[in-house]
User: Which sequence fits this backbone?
């Protein structure tokens, strides 16, 4: 079995190949598998990761009235221009010191890694929500990688196996692995890790097996995202009606909370937000599309996977399929219901505050 040294820049090149800034049909390889941009949704489903890694230099820093960074305009000769949207959930990592980094010290021209959502708009340049910003990246040691824990398995020798990347990467941690928390830099115990945790992992060599395997030199436990915190603390009852705010207006319609998902009447909400909706019969099923000028979001009735296809002339590509927890369905005589989060593909933010659904 061959070994492959994953230096930081090589890891960036491999991971970014899963992104879509080029908007072209291409086969993108990685250490744990491959996927083809523009392939049918079912072909990408098993290889979709929690994040995509982009490397580039900061071209512009956009701040709000309070001085907080809201977006980064990035440039890269290898991967093209990109806009990273910055929320309160973004973590800032000093890779060399294995600590949190101060975003106020970020300067135009600095080279950084950005782990961002696999969901991106097909605008020019594309935009995507950032998940982690990695700075101070030494080239001679392992660098920080953003991961979401899918499973933690205790091994007979006392070590643990952390499963991530849709089961495609196994990270082993043991007594030699140093541990810290993002918030206060204090240590934590390996048995505290659980499925759903966000972590930064420092590792170097990755075995080219499937699943890929590596050993973590250091693991940083990240705080839960605000979305996960809301799910734990403010969760509507199953079947509850949801009031809505759409671009600041309160429409005369309601949503539903089903299977942990905010569901909305697609056509009415899309039209209120300025998008076009098309219904196309497909045998015993149907295809419903929601479109902006740049992207067409496709809903196959009865299938949980929702994906977007670019409408930009001379560009071909699609987003990774997204499963938001419940498949779109139709209520007679013809109202299509689907997860509200589909509108995030079209550049909107979707927030559920108690039983009030906000899309803007």
Assistant:
């Amino acid at each position: 079995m061959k070994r492959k040294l994953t230096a930081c820049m090589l890891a960036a090149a491999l991971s970014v190949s899963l992104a879509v800034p080029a908007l072209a049909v291409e086969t993108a390889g990685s250490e744990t598998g491959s996927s083809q941009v523009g392939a049918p949704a079912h072909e990408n489903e098993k290889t979709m990761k929690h994040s995509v890694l982009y490397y580039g230099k900061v071209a512009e820093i956009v701040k709000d009235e309070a001085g907080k960074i809201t977006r980064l305009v990035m440039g890269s000769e290898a991967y093209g221009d990109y806009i990273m949207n910055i929320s309160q959930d973004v973590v800032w990592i000093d890779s060399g010191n294995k600590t949190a980094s101060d975003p106020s010290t970020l300067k135009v021209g600095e080279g950084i890694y950005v782990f961002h959502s696999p969901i991106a708009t097909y605008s020019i340049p594309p935009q995507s929500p950032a998940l982690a910003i990695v700075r101070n990246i030494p080239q001679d040691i392992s660098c920080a990688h953003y991961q979401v824990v899918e499973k933690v398995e205790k091994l007979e020798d006392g070590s643990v196996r952390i499963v991530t990347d849709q089961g495609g990467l196994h990270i082993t941690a043991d007594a030699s692995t140093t541990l810290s928390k993002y918030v206060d830099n204090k240590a934590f115990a390996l048995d505290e890790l659980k499925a759903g945790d966000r972590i930064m992992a420092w590792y170097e060599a990755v075995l080219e097996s499937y699943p890929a395997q590596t050993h973590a030199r250091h693991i940083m436990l990240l705080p839960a995202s605000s979305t996960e915190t809301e799910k734990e603390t403010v969760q509507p009852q199953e079947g509850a009606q949801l009031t809505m705010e759409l671009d600041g207006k309160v429409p005369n319609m309601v949503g539903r909370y089903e299977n942990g998902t905010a569901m909305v009447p697609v056509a009415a909400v899309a039209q209120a937000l300025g998008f076009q909706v098309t219904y196309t019969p497909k045998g015993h099923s149907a295809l419903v599309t929601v479109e902006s000028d740049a992207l067409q979001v496709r809903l196959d009735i009865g299938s949980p996977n929702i994906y977007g296809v670019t409408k930009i002339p001379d560009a071909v590509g699609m987003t990774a399929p997204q499963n938001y927890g419940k498949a779109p369905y139709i209520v007679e005589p013809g109202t299509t219901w689907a997860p509200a989060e589909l509108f995030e593909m079209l550049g909107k933010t979707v927030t559920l505050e108690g039983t009030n659904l906000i899309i803007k």
Summary: DSSP finds four helices and 29 strands in the chain. The two ends are 50 Å apart (CA to CA).
